[in-house]
Design brief:
Blueprint (H helix, E strand, L loop, with lengths): L6 E5 H4 L22 E6 L2 E2 L6 E10 L5 E12 L2 E14 L7 E8 L4 E12 L2 E4 L4 E2 L3 E2 L4
């Protein structure tokens, strides 16, 4: 797998989206054992095939249980003066009643330009009526001139 296709993945356990935070408020609020572990990935930014002239960065989230709702937040960052600067987003995509083990996607877009880019993804969810959110952004690999 080449560097432009790598995906950074982190368990939401690290991000704070597991029980007890996403545990049901009471035993009847959710099925299963009351735990939901979710995972977020940030795909490397790439030249959009559907919209030429644009860089697209995608984030994906999936959970081990059916939960009430989730939201994925995605932004594209470019290195400027040695620092990462948000150039697109944060863009939020919400899903009601997401199903266990299915991937849900959010994305951000930025006009093609030279430089180093990365995708950042974060998420939040509600399980058994209890909200929780990511404690940290997850980052893709760095891509130089994704449209070039």
């Amino acid at each position: 797998m080449n560097a432009s296709k790598t995906v950074v993945q982190a368990a939401i356990a690290v991000l704070g989206l597991v029980a007890p935070v996403l545990a049901p408020a009471n035993a009847e609020a959710a099925s299963g054992d009351g735990n939901a572990a979710c995972h977020i990935t940030a795909d490397n930014p790439h030249h959009s095939k559907g919209s030429p002239g644009w860089i697209v960065g995608k984030g994906r989230i999936s959970c081990t249980a059916d939960i009430d709702s989730l939201e994925i937040i995605v932004q594209i960052e470019r290195k400027q003066g040695g620092n990462w600067v948000v150039v697109s987003g944060p863009d939020k995509t919400s899903y009601a009643s997401p199903k266990a083990n299915q991937k849900y996607t959010g994305q951000s877009n930025f006009g093609c330009g030279t430089g180093e880019y990365r995708t950042a993804a974060s998420g939040s969810g509600v399980y058994g009526g209890r909200p929780s959110g990511s404690m940290a952004w997850q980052y893709s690999g760095i891509v130089t001139n994704p449209c070039g």
